[in-house]
Amino acid sequence: MDEFCKAVADGDISSMNAFMDEDDFDIDAKDGAGLAALHHAAMAGEAAGGSLLVECSADVNVVGNTALHEAAASKAQDVAWLIVENGGDQCMKVENNEGKTPLDIATEAGADEEMLAMLQKALDDVS
């Protein structure tokens, strides 16, 4: 799993495809820290890797510290948008273990106004 997460964070689509072609591959498997590959894409701001994961049905609604929380913390607007637009908009209301939503995290991280507006719109749309 660690090698796959590294490929995701690096945006190495060729390696990602090789891993995903294995019969027993679980796209939502967690690493030793409890993070799925989509979390790694979000933390790295890797839109191409995140997009491929979403296209291959990665779970965008993980409870707790979601990939959207990680994208918000990393100010990775492209990845956050991919998650929101592909069913992860429900994560807008999810509080992490510290009681914070993705919008709270993005605000604290100093995300730009465009990202904050996108997250606010997503929150308004699900409220």
UniProtKB/TrEMBL annotation:
Transmembrane spans: none
Domain of life, source organism: Eukaryota
Keyword Isomerase: no
Coiled-coil residue spans: none
Pfam families membership: Ank_2 (PF12796)
Keywords, alphabetical: ANK repeat, Repeat
SUPFAM superfamilies tied to this protein: Ankyrin repeat
ANK repeat start-end pairs: 33-65
Family matches, as InterPro entries: Ankyrin_rpt, Ankyrin_rpt-contain_sf
Cross-referenced PANTHER family: ANKYRIN REPEAT DOMAIN-CONTAINING PROTEIN 39-RELATED, BRCA1-ASSOCIATED RING DOMAIN PROTEIN 1
Protein name: Uncharacterized protein
Organism for this UniProt entry: Prorocentrum cordatum
